Amino acid sequence: MRPKKIARAAGTGASVPVECCQVCGHAPLDDVLSLGYMPPVNQMVPIGQVPRQQPWFPTELLHCRNCDLVQLGLAVDPVVIFPPEYPYTSGTTKLLRDNFADLQHESTTMLSLSKEDMVIDVGSNDGTLLSNFKNAGLRVLGIEPTDVGDIASERGIPTIKRYLGPEVAREVKREHGPASLVTAANCFAHIEDVHAIVDAIVEMLKPGGVFISESHYLIGLLDTLQYDTVYHEHLRYYSVASLKHLLEMHDLEVFHARSIPSHGGSIRVYAARRGTYSVHETVRQMISAEPHGEAMVKRLISFRRDVVLSKLRLLSMLSNLKENGAHIVGISAPSRASTLINYVGLDEGIIDYVCEVPGSLKIGKYMPGTRIPVVDEARLFADQPDCAVIFSWHIADELAPKLKSKGFRGQLITPLPVPRVL
Ligand SMILES: [Zn+2]
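Above: the input record for the complex with zinc ion. Below: its predicted structure, written as tokens.
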């Protein structure tokens, strides 16, 4: 059953609590973990500006016992979460570029796509995903409501700068014809009314068309303690089973699923109208490896305990360093750094500053909710602080050798899943 009440925060300028499961409507939802109140991760105050009042939103994870979806307990107006200056572009991360090239290669082979086929990307960002299909000679269309869509248009990727809804879907189908493939990468968890989006996607698909979604993976999040990826733009945390449940409500059958490395662990899931494709063994394999029902409840309880312990361990490690007079800084300021810093309670007395690579729009601002300044990475090599905490720890293997080869001589620390010195 679809939810009777959808938590719609869009247009409120504020937030609305999630009172029933966003997918199946079940209520009440069970508490998993509270990270306390958090500032919006993309509202960063310029250095030197007098502190003013800012919104802080409760950040709670809830679990649906009926469909096993893990979800945020609060929907915040997208205007608050994605301000117009929202700096996120997928093309700047090598891992994401490689992943989208892989997606194009894999899907073209598996679905035998050819030059007559049309590919639509929902939440197409700067057009990085679609550029792979365009270069292969396919017809492409992006749907991206934010200004980042202009970058895609300039690159020659036709982009509709609107929110996807039933009307836009009908218009797209009328003007461009139905799509052989619709993709949604890392935006499928962000949209308030997920059923309306799936309806719109089904509307745009031709009868044998395929929908591929990529989402951050709940099981990976639990296994590697990535509570720091919990922030208000991520409304839902899917397992393959909960995603399958959602898509089946729209008569879509999941026929292939696999893990991919994006964002510290994601899933790529293929779906089509029932009976179009034979279902790969991968679907059963992935679902049978996931906890369900009571096993999921137990898994979430141990996750909560481990998150709390990880906070205390990190604080204890930093406390020992500080007792010995160490200077500690941070490396990189992704959105997830805001959750970690605010949940653990780090401030400018503990972390002197956070470094970003030259050109980052975050330089010259404070980390959300704190007075920790974000500075150019050059400062790290000039100051040589005693240690640096890598906030984008999920790519520490890539970052650490770079920092060392550029001349950093201090200790490097990864805060999660267990705080440790590299
Ligand atoms: Zn549910």
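Notes for the reader.
The longest strand covers residues 205-216.
Residues 293-323 form the longest helix (31 residues).
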